[in-house]
Predict the 3D structure of the following.
Amino acid sequence: MISTAIRVARVGSAAELAAAALMMLGFPCLMLAALLPSVYAFVVAAAVTYLADHFLHRKGSYLINRLSKVRAGLSIRFLIRQLLLILLLARMSLADNLVFYAAVACFIAFYGLQAPHGALVTLIRNRRRMPVATRNIDLKSRIRIPDAPPRRLLHRSAEKMLHLDLLAVAGLLVSAALDDAFVGFIGAGLTVALGCLYVAVLLPYVRGRRTPPRAEAVLAAVDDWLAAYKPETVLYFSGSKDSAYQVNMWLETMEQLETRPLIILRERALLNNIAPTTVPVICVPGGVHLMNLDLSTVRVALYAANVGKNIHLLRVPTMKHVFIGHGDSDKLASVNPYSKVYDEVWTAGRAGRDRYAIADVGVRDEDIVEVGRPQLAPITTWQGVPEGRIPTVLYAPTWEGWDGNPGNTSIVLAGENIVRKLVEADPPVRVLYKPHPFTGTVSAQAGAAHRRVTALVEKAAAERAADSRFTADTAAAQERARAELARIEARLAELAGAGGDKGDEAEATRDGIVDVERHQEIARLRAEWNAAYWNSFPAYEHKVITGAEPRLYDCFNVSDAMVSDISSVVSDFIASGKPYAVTDSGELGVEEFKRQNTAVRAATILSNSAAELGGLLDAVRAPSADPLAGDRKELKQYLLGPDEPKSIDQFNTAVADLALKAETRNVGQQSRVGAANVDPAETAELTNALPGQRSASAGETDDVNAV
């Protein structure tokens, strides 16, 4: 019943639900206490509403956001409490007392201060929101960006301002209880005085040297940096903060390019969620600002997602445009008709080319280039189960998706069957369960199934720990590994602290130059952390793995087989050469399932009962008798391309070839313009100009949808 209430109220825990209930009940109790009247009951009810409200704000409760939508927002709740206090004073026959007038005057003045306070906070935030935000770009030497205001002034500023009424409320209640107006005057005076002081402290940040430069100066500084850096290859990305992983998977590839790389993001939230990188990053929310940037040296633009905002860069003809995607699978997203707008589409292997041919969505075969998957380099090739260790099977289902298709994920219909058969397998295997981070975000059924699977794994782990057949004879080594984990985590925390609090967006832009040595040390420590993590518990222990660490590819490397669903996870796992199984949750049948999904042609196909899991486990225990080993080898090359040359080398070659095509086109355009002896005023129009022409006011940030 409690879990149902939590789901209906959309709160995160029973504590949040209790706080919400107390806050809702607290206000009727305040009115009742005022009408009785009872000072002490009012004190208790007021304390409950203050504390419950603060708790829900600190937790970022969804309920708080909903209250503001029904005209019961934060300011209204504070105002109601203050009006009820005035009612209490009136009911106590204090309406003719000076303390009553002091209360009325205090709260009127206090609310009068809310307007300038809110205006100043908004103005400061807007002025410090620059037209572009950057990382790894030296703007500090080009423009002056002042320090951000202290975080304590702007963080949850409305809540802090409103809570200054605590002094007045407390003083007035003491006055009512003791029949002594002095304390009430003091409390009311302090509330108004502190409110005025808060407003006064904010004033210096809206004028003079404490304000960032205007948009024109910032854009000019960015163009000056671009002219000096001369970027050649751009990774362009637009999306929600939850889609940041789609650009993060390409960061290491961008760092290994043989040309000068640049990353362009379109949403500010993405900049805060992008992983650390040495590649320069520019976040340009405004379409006009983007089109006015000087990108005249860029010859290749890479796109990781098909989104509407791609049009703002696609319209530039001086560079060639390539769709590289964010994974390789048989999902419909991998053959989006939108892809025909690009000059080329790069796929991992032959399968991607065939996929477009079969879909017939307008992408020409000559525009498809096979470049492998550079991100798969960390995945190690299987050498069989090490001597003396029980096999490890990874269960990595995808999430339920937006459309409710039962074939999207196995977690709902088959998850428990799969895990139960694995934990009960004889001879035994170890189970690693790593769910997709979006699991349960759309479907309550998927969320419930995930919790049941988690409980199954944790119960099996506890039973195995108590089983005498499984003994931790490496307890000392595990203890050392745990100590090493603690040391590494402490050092990583120290390095994270050394990075410093970058303040707001403007300050982060000014100071966001990566420390290369620190970046390399963090990468080394993360590799050491991964090794220590797997050594910190017995090799037979079942494990539920959530969160960013250990990464999916790390789980691949310690596993001997995998069970998953149709997604890019399967295509990536094929790089390891290990046995794998895929669940036909939509019950298409083995033949039809294989016909529709290339990546499962070398897989053990599971029904929702998971009765076929024995075949997968037999392949792990006896690799020499594995009937699908040859099929996996062929499929690996078909899906991901050849092992040699290395994928990053193929990728760099493709970039160089396309850059040459772009340069050839540009030279040809210039030659045609010269041969036609076109008037200089028309030259820019004929060649469609180069970016960097300031054709709109620098303050204009509206998206441009025309092509």
Q: What stands out?
A: The chain has 29 helices and 14 strands. Residues 143 and 221 are 7 Å apart (CA to CA). Residues 98-127 form the longest helix (30 residues). Residues 694-707 have pLDDT under 50 and may be disordered.
